[in-house]
Amino acid sequence: MYDTAARYREATRAGLVGLTVNLALGVIKLIAGIVARSTALIADAVNSLGDALSSLAVVYGLRISQLPADEEHPYGHARAEGIAATNVAVVIIVSAGIVGWEALMRFGQLAPAVPWWAMAIATGNVVLKECLFQYKVRVGRRTKSASIIANAWDHRSDALCSLAVLIGFLVVRAGGPAYGWADQVAAIIVSLGVIWSGIGLFRSSANELMDAQAESEFLDRIRDQALTVTGVEGVETLLVRKVGLEYFVDVHIEVNPSLTVDYGHRIGHHVKDRLLAHFQELRDVLVHLEPHRAPDPADDAQ
C-alpha cells in the first residue's frame, strides 16, 4: 500500500502523459487531414486537441485537490478531483453526440478515397489511444481517481471513433465512393456506445460528489480495526465518504457508560490514531462516543 501523496503523483503523471500524447496526435492528424483533404481526419484531430484540454483539466483538478485546508475550505479541496471527473464525462457525452449527429447529416454522401499514409496515421492513432486507455484505467483503479478513470474512457471513446474512421476509409477504398455510408454507420454505432459509457461515468463521479457510502468491504475493514482498540465495545454507526483520492470517516463507537469523560475521550483518540495509521487513504476520522448497553433479557422473552 502506498500513501495518498504517492497516489496523487501517479495520477498526475498519468494525466500529463495523456496531455502530451493528445497534443501530439492532434497536431499530426490536423496536418495530415489538411494535406489529404480528409474531413474525418480533421474532425478526429479537433477531437484529440479537445482531449488535451480535458487532460489539462484533470491535471489541474488533481493539483487543486492537494491544496491544504484553509478558512474558506476547512475540509480541504479534494472535491476538485470529482468535479474534474464530471466535466470530463460531460465532454465525452457531448463529443460523442456531435460525432453521431455529423454522421447522420453526412449519411449517404459520397466519400473520397484516402491515401495509404493517412490510413496509417489513423491506425497508429487507434493503437496509441487504446494503449493510453489501458494505462490510465489501471492507474485510475490503483489510485481510486475518478477523473483519471473518466479520462481513460475518453481515450477509449477516441480509439473507437478513430476505428470507425479507419473502417470507413478501408470500405471506401475497397468499394469506391458509393460505400461512404459505411463510415457513417460505424460512427453512429460507436457514438451511441460512447454516450452510454459517458453517462455511466457521469453518474459514478456525481454519486461521489453526493457523499455516497464507501464500498461494504472497505467499511468492514475499518469496523474491524476500530473494534481492536481496547475499550471499544461495539461500532454503532460507520459513515465513510470518498472525496477525491481520500476518505473521511464518521464513526460512533460504544464504550462502557460508567467510564469517565476523560477515559472515553482517550479511547476515541486511540480509535482515530489506529484508523489513520492503518488506512493511509483516510484524510480524517471523527469519533463519537455512545454508551454500550447489554441486551435486556426481558426483550428476549417477548
Structural class: mainly alpha
Beta strand count: 3
Enter the CATH topology name of the largest domain: Alpha-lytic protease prodomain-like
* Rg estimate, integer Å: 26 Å
Major sheet: arrangement of strands: 1-2-3
Helix content: 55-70%
CATH architectural arrangement of the largest domain: Up-down Bundle
What order do the SSEs take from the amino end to the carboxyl end, as H and E?
HHHHHHHEEHEH
Can you tell me the CATH class of the largest domain? Mainly Alpha
Strand content: 5-15%
Structural summary, described in words:
A hairpin with a 2-residue loop joins strand 1 and strand 2. The mean pLDDT is 81. The protein has a 3-stranded mixed β-sheet. With 302 residues, it is mainly α. Helices cover 69% and strands 10% of the residues. It folds into 2 domains: 206 residues, Cation efflux protein transmembrane domain (Alpha-lytic protease prodomain-like); 86 residues, Alpha-Beta Plaits, CATH 3.30.70.1350.
